[in-house]
TrEMBL record:
One GO term describing the cellular component: plasma membrane
Record's bilayer topology term: Lipid-anchor
Lineage of the organism: Bacteria, Pseudomonadati, Pseudomonadota, Alphaproteobacteria, Sphingomonadales
Keyword Signal appears in the UniProt entry: yes
NCBIfam families in the record: outer_NodT
Keywords, comma-separated and alphabetical: Lipoprotein, Membrane, Palmitate, Signal, Transmembrane, Transmembrane beta strand
Name this polypeptide is given: NodT family efflux transporter outer membrane factor (OMF) lipoprotein
Species for this entry: Sphingomonas kyeonggiensis
Biased segments, Low complexity type: 476-494
InterPro entries assigned to the protein according to its UniProt record, in alphabetical order: MdtP/NodT-like (IPR010131), OMP_efflux (IPR003423)
Length: 494
């Protein structure tokens, strides 16, 4: 019978706890976010392809290996996993607020007289009695239960906030992951492009050495003045001066690859030493329609979850305007002997309701602040959507223009190569001067480097497009938060 008041209090509280103040979150329509029905540039709007492992489309095993190593060992990705774990624990803590708290206590006390004997005491009724001054022991045990009734849904809104924040952290992890994948691939392309340009420069330097030797012979033979020889020497030195710059670019890209894969900058120099061509991917990528494509971008989905979290926070703040109700109870028992510890048990039930009557407008200001934060989260969401559309269209155009440039540079290289061969033959035969030869050689070097640059730009634009389309992740890539802590502890993921 003693439990009836507590049970009655809970039953009365349940209908009140069914309501939740604050706005209920609803996803925004594409029209509210400024999403168009079609791209403003020429793009393939067929159904979006599976881009979860887009790097395999470059058909370069070493590129695929480096991306996988970056996924496993990159420190930015590891930090994103840690933040995801923290968000998970925040959700667990918020859910715990929906449950009652229970505590138990127990104690033993012992008192001992410092001097033996008895003490004579006269009782109020005049009776004289003797009380032993020996030691005594007492035992106590008790338990307490407390429950904060979620009358107006503030706690539930807090759980909504934590859940949305946790989901946003998962999407933030995916954003970091695809960024690292794209940066790894881009630096790999830059390293291969630098290798190709260094090879071009060294090949051209060999030709410049031959031209300098021929110019020297012609000067010695009195066929030309020393101007030709000096021009050849200057041209050769200028060409040689470009090689250290290209080597620095190559070293920078390879060092970056080392760090991206969680290693020292020089860790990959031996692996990358062999010269390989710039990886080339497919000529076209299906972009899909804008609304569907944006759903694949984790940064857009993270922004949407941040908006949901901010919306739930309005309810958390609004609930503070209303009364709070807490109910609880306790039981206690005490005895001088363990055998009789549970002979007498006392208990109490209580309920407490509280309402802030005046706080100088603090709580209402907190509601307005939460509403402003939600407005800001919506603007950030819309900004992320529009920036994503911009990224995709820019990447599409960049790839298309790089393809056109590659085609033109291929024609230019063929023409420049023929021109240089003819100029060398004519110079050796004395039919033209060194200036003409030098111009032809310069055109050839420019066409070679232009073609390398166009191929590199095409590959990096394709990587940029894969990243902009949200490639490189799926739901299965989100790591389990039941992992061992980097500080030596563990999490149980409950």
């Amino acid at each position: 019978m003693a439990n009836r008041p507590l049970t009655l209090s809970l039953l009365l509280a349940l209908p009140l706890a069914a309501c939740a103040v604050g706005p209920d979150y609803h996803p925004r329509a594409a029209s509210e976010l400024g999403v168009p029905d079609a791209w403003s540039v020429s793009a393939d709007q067929k159904a979006r392809e599976d881009l979860s492992q887009w790097w395999t489309r470059f058909d370069d095993p070493m590129l695929g290996n480096l991306v996988q190593r970056a996924q496993a060992a990159n420190l930015d990705v590891a930090q994103a996993v840690v933040r995801l774990r923290q968000a998970r624990e925040g959700l667990i803590q918020q859910r715990a607020n929906l449950l009652p708290s229970l505590s138990a206590s127990g104690g033993v006390s012992h008192s001992e007289s410092l001097r033996g004997g008895t003490r004579t005491t006269t009782l109020p009724d005049g009776t004289v009695t003797s009380i032993s001054q020996g030691g005594s022991t007492s035992y106590t045990i008790g338990g307490d239960a407390n429950y904060q009734v979620d009358l107006f849904g503030g706690v539930r809104r807090g759980v909504e906030n934590a859940r949305a924040s946790y989901e946003a952290s998962g999407f933030d992890y995916a954003t970091v992951l695809i960024s690292v994948e794209a940066e790894t691939a881009r630096n790999y392309v830059l390293a291969r492009a630098a290798q190709a340009q260094i090879a071009n420069a060294r090949e051209s330097l060999g030709i410049a050495d031959d031209n300098l030797e021929i110019a020297g012979w012609r000067v010695q033979a009195g066929l030309v003045s020393s101007v030709d020889q000096e021009q050849a020497r200057a041209s050769r030195a200028q060409l040689a001066a470009t090689i250290p710059t290209l080597e620095a670019s190559y070293n920078s890209a390879v060092s970056r690859l080392g760090v991206l894969t969680g290693q020292a900058p020089g860790a990959l120099k031996a692996e990358m030493e062999a010269i390989k061509p710039i990886p080339k991917g497919p000529a076209e990528v299906a972009a899909g329609i804008p609304a569907d494509t944006l759903r694949q971008r984790p940064d857009v989905r993270a922004a949407e979850r941040n908006l949901a979290a901010a919306s739930a926070n309005i309810g958390v703040a609004t609930a503070q305007l209303y009364p709070s109700l807490s109910i609880g109870g306790s039981i206690d028992s005490g005895s001088s002997a363990l055998s009789s510890l549970f002979d007498v048990i006392t208990g109490r039930l209580f309920g407490n309701i509280a309402q802030t009557l005046f706080d100088g407008g603090t709580r209402r200001s907190q509601v307005r602040s939460a509403e402003a934060a939600a407005d800001g989260a919506f603007l950030a969401y819309k900004s992320t959507v529009l920036t994503s559309l911009e990224d995709i269209e820019n990447a599409i155009v960049a790839m298309q223009t790089a393809q056109r440039r590659e085609q033109e540079f291929a024609v230019a290289l063929d023409a420049a190569n023929n021109q240089a061969l003819l100029a060398r033959m004519q110079y050796r035969s004395g039919l033209t001067d060194f200036t003409t030869l030098n111009q032809a050689e310069s055109s050839l070097i420019s066409a070679k480097n232009g073609l390398v640059s166009a191929r590199s730009d095409e590959s990096t634009a394709l990587i940029q497009l894969y990243q902009a389309l949200g490639g490189g992740w799926d739901a299965s890539t989100t790591p389990s938060v039941s992992t061992t802590s980097t500080t030596g502890g563990t999490t149980n993921g409950n």
